[in-house]
């Protein structure tokens, strides 16, 4: 089952909410096992050295997260507002009222660390056009738009009109960069088809929606050149909370899109182990240097 599919409540996604506390390690199932081992050790009669080693391991994990956070720039006031308002929102009620297709969770937000990473990439790329697939409350969209030049444009996609009204009315207006963002509502694959048919092309595409659709997106992105030559595809949650590399069936959709990417000899890939993994994909011809 792909993550967050419609009404499925993703427990791991909920824990993404604690991203303000633990920006990295709560995505790592190995860390959860170490923490579990510590709990077991605390309630058992184990050698003191083993207990101390496990306590030290957990302390190191926390300190590494804190160090990561303290060496990452703060997000803008408008992004922080999105974060705070998203945490406060009653997503269960909204979903019960039929206003959102998915039972959305605050933990689905990219958040500060990933937002700053995306913003950095956009600034390094010096790009002008971005496609953000999977808007939610617009954190990734605004983080990236903040690095665009004044004539830059970001199109962000989601499926619920409720989100468009919320994000347009309350969040993007609070930033001078909000005017660079256009929201399109509808099944993302239909919007992607329309963008391709209209001849639109993007310098960066950030994919953060329903993973079951990713193989189809790839056909438009690379097969039909939705991504400009020299462009970059970024795929969020490439680890699928660890299920991408374990036998858990939730890893299924991840394995399909990663397999499709791996079988294409023309693509260069790097999986950055930031939070739940960001896969950076470019055409090999754009990555390889030349020699005289
Ligand atoms: C993980 S959230 C995106 C988080 C966002 N990038 C951020 O930084 O806050 C995924 C979003 O994709 C949307 N989505 C899921 N399936 C979709 C589909 N088929 N078409 C359009 N949007 C979809 C969901 O409604 C949800 O808001």
Key descriptive features of the protein:
292 residues, seven-stranded mixed beta sheet, Cation-dep_OMT, methyltransferase, disordered N terminus, 12 helices, SAM_O-MeTrfase, Rossmann fold, binds S-adenosylmethionine, 2 domains, S-adenosylmethionine-dependent methyltransferase activity, alpha/beta, single chain
What can you see in these coordinates?
The chain starts with 10 loop residues before the first helix and ends in a 5-residue tail after the last helix. The chain is built from twelve helices and seven strands. Residues 1-21 have low confidence and may be disordered. It has helices spanning 11-16, 29-42, 48-70, 77-88, 91-96, 111-125, 139-145, 161-171, 188-197, 214-223, 252-262, 284-287; strands at residues 129-133, 153-158, 181-185, 202-207, 227-235, 267-272, 278-283. The radius of gyration is 20 Å and the shape is globular. The protein is of the alpha/beta class. It has a seven-stranded mixed β-sheet with strand order 3-2-1-4-5-7-6, sandwiched between helices. The site of S-adenosylmethionine (SAM) has 22 residues, from helix 7 and strand 2.
CATH fold name of the largest domain: Rossmann fold
Alpha-carbon distance between the two ends: 50 Å
Q: What class, by secondary structure content?
A: alpha/beta
What are the distinct ligands in this entry?
S-adenosylmethionine
Count of alpha and pi helical runs: 12
CATH class of the largest domain: Alpha Beta
With strands numbered from the N-terminus, the spatial order across the biggest sheet is: 3-2-1-4-5-7-6
Beta fraction:
5-15%
CATH architecture of the largest domain: 3-Layer(aba) Sandwich
Biggest sheet details: 7 strands, mixed
- CATH homologous superfamily annotation of the largest domain: Vaccinia Virus protein VP39
Number of strands: 7
Task: Provide the succession of SSEs.
Answer: HHHHHHEHEHEHEHEHEEH
The mean pLDDT is 90
* Form type: globular
GO biological process, one term: methylation
GO molecular function: O-methyltransferase activity; S-adenosylmethionine-dependent methyltransferase activity
Keywords: Methyltransferase, S-adenosyl-L-methionine, Transferase
Pfam families: Methyltransf_3
């Amino acid at each position: 089952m792909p993550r967050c599919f419609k009404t499925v409540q993703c427990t791991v996604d909920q824990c993404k909410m604690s991203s303000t506390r633990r920006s990295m390690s709560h995505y790592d199932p190995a860390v959860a096992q170490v923490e579990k081992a510590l709990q077991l050790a605390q309630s058992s009669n184990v050698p003191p050295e083993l207990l101390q080693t496990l306590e030290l391991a957990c302390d190191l994990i926390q300190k590494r997260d804190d160090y990561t956070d303290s060496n990452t720039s703060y997000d803008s006031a408008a992004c922080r507002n999105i974060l705070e308002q998203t945490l406060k929102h009653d997503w269960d009620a909204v979903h019960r009222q039929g206003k959102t297709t998915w039972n959305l969770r605050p933990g689905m937000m990219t958040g500060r660390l990933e937002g700053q990473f995306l913003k950095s990439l956009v600034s390094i790329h010096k790009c002008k056009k971005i496609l953000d697939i999977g808007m939610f409350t617009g954190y990734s969209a605004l983080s990236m738009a903040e690095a665009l030049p004044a004539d830059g444009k970001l199109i962000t996609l989601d499926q619920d009109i409720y989100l468009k009204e919320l994000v347009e009315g309350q969040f993007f207006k609070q930033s001078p960069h909000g005017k660079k963002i256009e929201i399109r509502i509808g099944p993302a694959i239909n919007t992607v088809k329309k963008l391709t048919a209209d001849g639109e092309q993007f310098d960066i595409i950030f994919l953060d929606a329903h993973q079951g659709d990713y193989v189809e997106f790839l056909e438009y992105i690379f097969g039909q050149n939705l991504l400009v030559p020299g462009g970059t595809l970024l795929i969020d949650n490439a680890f699928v909370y660890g299920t991408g590399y374990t036998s858990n069936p939730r890893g299924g959709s991840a394995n399909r899109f990663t397999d499709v990417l791996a079988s294409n000899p023309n693509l260069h890939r790097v999986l950055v182990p930031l939070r739940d993994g960001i896969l950076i994909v470019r055409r090999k011809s754009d990555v390889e240097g030349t020699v005289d």
